[in-house]
Amino acid sequence: MRLRTVLLLFIAVGLAGGTAMLARAWLAAQRAAEIAEAAPLALPTPAKSVLVARADVRRGQILKPEDMMWQVWPEGGIDKSYVVLGTRTPESFAGWVARNPVAAGEPVTESKIISPANRGFLAAVLRPGMRAISVPVTLTSGISGFIFPGDQVDLLITYQVPAQNTAGSTGGYEHKAAETVLHDVRVIAIDQRLESKAGEAVVAHTATMEVTPKQSEIIALAGEIGKLSLSLRSLVPAVGDTTGSRDPNAGPEATTVADSSDGTPGPTFTLDSEISPLLPKSLHGNDNSDGGTITILRGGGKGADSIASPAAPRGS
């Protein structure tokens, strides 16, 4: 009887011990689960992004912030020359110029672009075969400081036209005329600044333009003839406008002065007599009502007929 009691006692103690161990293990597992739920989630390491060209960038193109964008890049393929997100911003490269072409999606590096503060910057802005020439501007001729590098302009000249009488000699009233001598010229600098800040207008004293060698001769001579003014062109040409603004990053084009053989516009002008009817009419303008006369004498002067001569060609 005692042996049975002792055996049952051992069995009871063993069951109690096993239950206690199971309970302890279950409580430990529950506590570990609660701690794991309370702990913050480990965020994955963010991928690095590098600055790339949004579209193809041509050599000599003046960069704008919208020309660049951030793109996720494999960390193992990031070169030390790449611009990584957090080190620079696209705005910090505004006004820089591409010294070498950059393809769309290609990383932008300082070996492919040049800062306005570096030597040789202006030469990098110029496209092959083009020249840089500066013209003086004022508050009015420079459109109150609202012409910026990268804009496309027309170049106008105002001057006096000596009057000619019917005998061909000069004298009398000197007409004033305004003429557009160059179309669609790219401005590359205002004063000594080759970049502009957003929302800032600069009243400049000079404007530097990119032109062909022939156009540079025309501008140099036009500055000696009369007063130069700039006319800002719209980014979107009017319907049917053959002088509409071209791609500012396209290659050089032929001079647009008095060249109609290839479809480019010739010079246009306006005389002061077209503005006010009180001023004398010019024999060389379209506003000459009589167009000049030719007198034909017959038979020793016994009869004379006066006929209207053909109108002089515009710009003669």
Q: What's the assembly state of these chains?
A: single chain
Helices, by number, come to: 4
Number of strands: 12
Computed Rg? 40 Å
The helical percent reads 10-25%
Q: Give the overall shape.
A: rod-shaped
> What is the total domain count?
3
User: What low-confidence regions span 5 or more consecutive residues with pLDDT below 50?
Assistant: 247-264, 287-297, 302-316
In short:
The chain is an alpha+beta fold. The chain has helices spanning 2-38, 121-125, 213-225, 272-275, and strands at residues 49-53, 68-72, 97-98, 113-114, 131-136, 152-161, 175-190, 206-211, 227-232, 268-271, 293-298, 303-308.
Describe the fold and architecture.
The protein is an alpha+beta fold and 316 residues long. The chain is built from four helices and twelve strands. The strands form four sheets. Strands 5, 6, 7, 8, 9 and 10 form a six-stranded antiparallel beta sheet that branches. A hairpin with a 4-residue loop joins β11 (293-298) and β12 (303-308). The protein is rod-shaped, with a radius of gyration of 40 Å. The relative contact order is 0.11. Mean pLDDT is 75; it is low at 247-264, 287-297 and 302-316.
Supply the key terms:
3 domains; two-stranded antiparallel sheet; 6-stranded antiparallel sheet; rod-shaped; about 25% strand; 4 helices; Type Iii Antifreeze Protein Isoform Hplc 12; about 325 residues
